[in-house]
Every structure is written in C-alpha cells, then in structure tokens.
Amino acid sequence: LSNNTEVDFDKRGHWKKIKSKNGIPLEVLPNISKEYILENYTNIKTIEIEKERGKYEVLLENNIELVFSKNGEISKIEE
Predict the structure, then answer these.
(1) Which of 65, 71, 35, 31 is nearest to 50 (CA)?
(2) Are 38 and 27 within 8 A, CB to CB?
(3) Which of 22, 37, 39, 78 could form a disulfide with 65 if both were Cys (CB 3.0 to 4.6 A apart)?
C-alpha cells in the first residue's frame, strides 16, 4: 500500500498477514487480544499480524511475539 503496509491474502480474499513498520491498527484482532496488547504493551507498535489456523501471531516493534487463540486468549509470549 502507499504507506508501506504489506497485506497477504488467502485464495478466498481474506487477509492472512499484515506487515507495517508504521504500526497496524489493532481493530483487525479479536477484542480480547486488542485489550491485552493495549493493557500490557502501551505505546508499542504492532508491526506484524499473521492469522493462521486457530491462532493469531502478533509481532511488536520491540521484537516481542504474542500468540493468541482464535478467541483472543493469550497462549504464548516470546521475548
């Protein structure tokens, strides 16, 4: 996109990966995931979100990777 955001789509046209050094709006995640990031990582940009079967992988600009279930519950944190 014009703001250097990259979006990969599956064959049905649904997004499967979003990358942006400028930050990604958290609205693309389930509410529980969004709330967790806002409460625990305030002012840290989300630079990559990948949607895989049954989970979301979220990479923050400080190289912390969060993995959420499809319901938005945190299942893994890698620092």
Answers:
(1) 65
(2) no
(3) 78
